[in-house]
């Protein structure tokens, strides 16, 4: 078995190893991609924040100038402070609209400020600049409208009075920058040609990018304008050259804020330094260890299979022998149980016979003696009719005592063996039992339902049913505290009940009194319920106790009749399971 499976296991191991290595590389690639995305988001946030600062600074600058255009000291102090705080601001400027003097610049009557028209003859010289030093002094009075870089920007901002960005241009220090312009009128004066200003920020694009020390090897960041022209670029130092076939990761972001539009591109070349060699080595080592353990397991399995086969045959033989012994023992127990039930039935029959004989002896012997005593007492009363005489009173007392003894004896005879059961049948015997128990005197209302040929059964069934009803009524009176009792006795052959079909007896006795715990008390205290159950089982029937809905107890008995009774009893040799509910009393 090992030789046949070994090539497949080796091939599977190689494929699994390659897959794990690929997953490890993919995890490294995904991690690098995630890091690159985080770096791009960081750069985007930094540039967006600076673009927001530019707009807020320009707005604040225009508010200050519009409120006090002649307060050069405050304006310069503010501009100087902003440049110190934000190094990417190269300079701050103010241009003011002026008429064009001379024919070379158009007619003076074309001087107007209607923002809906583009035909105008004006100039926008720089009237304020910060920092003002020898390198920037030449810009004072320079008309930006004549500069091709700013012409369209000046025209647009003059027309719409919104922040507008100029095209990128080269600064004095050979760096790339751009201008952010905003037109405004002097505050607290009516808009006119004389009080139109344009404030501008000249921004160093190199300062827009954050510190790029976080860049790893073979990575670069490019800042481009909306047309894709590179404004600034940072490249990490590379000590080795990577093959061109290695994958390259790229992330792009677009920043558009207050007229400032940029594109950010971060590129990273996937290289050996991005591979988690430790994890890859662990995976390969684990794969080799699994391969060697698996081959060792196969060798051990071949050896164990032979031993298991021998042990299996031995266990199989022993199991067959054990099953034979269990089957034999089960049959013996079943036969013993059937015999026990037969003996129980016989004991009950003998008990009933003894009760009948005892009842007859009480009736024949004691009854006749009591009758003779009462007769003699009555003779004495006739001989001595005087009521005050001692003989008459003694005879009266003897007669009363004899009558009481007769009544007690008659009650004992009915309890031992109801004469109605032999003379009139089951139903009348049950009715006599109901009367003798005086249910009404105990505040109990009886609801009964009798169906079928109940008076055409043998003595075994009659006495069993009578004893069941007698014991149930006794328990209800003693313990149940019930107000209603239901007694249903049906003889039927329709359908099936409790796995018993054909001609059968179905008995239900229930009450609405208090119940108790069947597991703790039903068949562990006293012999009343045990006797009822054994009488039913002796006839091959089923005895079940359960709770009667919310209150009370219910007893259900099903007994097969006729020739099927003996067969059913042997088939149900294993004891019936009582329902796990609160039983009768």
From TrEMBL:
GO CC terms, sorted: membrane
Main location: membrane
Keyword Cell inner membrane: no
Domain Histidine kinase: 361-563
The CHASE domain, residue ranges: 115-209
Any one GO molecular-function label of the UniProt entry: protein dimerization activity
UniProt cross-references to SMART domains, sorted A to Z: CHASE, HATPase_c
Subcellular location: Membrane
Annotated catalysed reactions: ATP + protein L-histidine = ADP + protein N-phospho-L-histidine
EC number(s) stated in the UniProt entry for this protein: 2.7.13.3
Coiled-coil annotated residue ranges, if any: 312-368
Annotated Pfam families: CHASE, HATPase_c, HisKA_3
Membrane-crossing segments per the record: 6-27, 275-298
Keyword Glycosyltransferase: no
Keyword annotations of the record: ATP-binding, Coiled coil, Kinase, Membrane, Nucleotide-binding, Phosphoprotein, Transferase, Transmembrane, Transmembrane helix, Two-component regulatory system
Domain of life: Bacteria
PANTHER family: NITRATE/NITRITE SENSOR PROTEIN NARX-RELATED, NITRATE_NITRITE SENSOR PROTEIN NARQ
Name the UniProt record assigns to this protein: histidine kinase
Organism encoding this protein: Amphritea atlantica
């Amino acid at each position: 078995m090992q030789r046949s499976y070994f090539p497949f296991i080796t091939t599977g191991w190689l494929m699994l190893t390659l897959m794990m290595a690929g997953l490890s590389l993919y995890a490294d690639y995904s991690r690098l991609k995630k890091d690159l995305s985080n770096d791009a988001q960081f750069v985007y946030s930094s540039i967006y924040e600076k673009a927001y600062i530019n707009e807020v600074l320009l707005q604040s600058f225009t508010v200050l100038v519009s409120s006090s255009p002649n307060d050069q000291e405050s304006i310069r102090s503010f501009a100087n402070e902003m440049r110190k705080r934000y190094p990417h601001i190269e300079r701050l400027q103010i241009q003011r609209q002026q008429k064009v003097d001379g024919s070379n610049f158009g007619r003076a009557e074309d001087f107007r400020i209607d923002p809906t028209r583009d035909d105008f003859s004006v100039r926008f010289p720089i009237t304020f600049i910060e920092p003002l030093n020898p390198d920037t002094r030449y810009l004072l009075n320079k008309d930006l409208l004549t500069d091709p870089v700013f012409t369209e920007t000046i025209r647009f901002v003059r027309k719409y009075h919104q922040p507008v960005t100029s095209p990128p241009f080269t600064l004095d220090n050979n760096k790339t920058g751009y201008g952010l312009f905003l037109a405004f009128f002097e505050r607290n004066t009516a808009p006119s040609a004389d009080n139109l200003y344009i404030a501008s920020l000249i921004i160093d694009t190199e300062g827009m990018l954050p510190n790029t020390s976080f860049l790893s090897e073979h990575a670069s960041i490019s800042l481009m304008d909306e047309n894709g022209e590179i404004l600034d670029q940072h490249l990490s130092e590379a000590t080795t050259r990577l093959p061109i076939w290695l994958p390259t990761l790229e992330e792009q972001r677009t920043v558009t804020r207050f007229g400032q539009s940029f594109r950010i591109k971060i590129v990273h070349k996937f290289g050996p330094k991005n591979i988690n060699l430790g994890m890859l080595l662990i995976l390969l080592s684990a794969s080799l260890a699994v391969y060697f353990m698996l081959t060792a397991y196969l060798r051990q399995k071949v050896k164990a299979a032979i031993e298991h086969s021998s042990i299996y045959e031995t266990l199989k033989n022993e199991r067959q022998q054990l099953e034979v012994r269990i089957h034999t023992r089960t049959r013996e127990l079943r036969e013993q149980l059937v015999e026990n039930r037969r003996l129980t039935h016989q004991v009950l029959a003998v008990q009933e016979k003894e009760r009948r004989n005892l009842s007859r002896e009480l009736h024949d012997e004691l009854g006749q003696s009591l009758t003779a005593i009462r007769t003699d007492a009555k003779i004495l009363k006739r001989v001595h009719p005087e009521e005050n005489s001692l003989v008459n009173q003694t005879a009266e007392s003897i007669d009363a005592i004899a009558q009481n003894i007769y009544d007690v004896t008659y009650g004992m005879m009915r309890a031992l063996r109801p004469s109605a059961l032999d003379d009139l049948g089951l139903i009348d015997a049950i009715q006599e039992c109901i009367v003798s128990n005086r249910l009404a005197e105990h505040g109990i209302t009886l609801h009964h339902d009798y169906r079928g040929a109940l008076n055409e059964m043998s003595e075994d069934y009659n006495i069993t049913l009578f004893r069941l009803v007698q014991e149930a009524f006794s328990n209800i009176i003693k313990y149940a505290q019930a107000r209603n009792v239901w007694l249903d006795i049906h003889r039927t052959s329709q359908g099936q009940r409790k796995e018993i079909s054909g001609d059968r007896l179905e008995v239900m006795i229930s009450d609405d009194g208090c119940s108790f715990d069947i597991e703790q008390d039903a068949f562990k205290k006293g012999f009343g319920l045990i006797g009822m159950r054994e009488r039913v089982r002796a006839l091959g029937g089923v005895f079940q106790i359960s709770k009667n809905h919310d209150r009370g107890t219910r007893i259900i008995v099903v007994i097969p009749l006729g020739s099927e009774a003996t067969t059913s009893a042997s088939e149900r040799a294993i004891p019936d399971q009582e329902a796990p509910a609160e039983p009768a009393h």
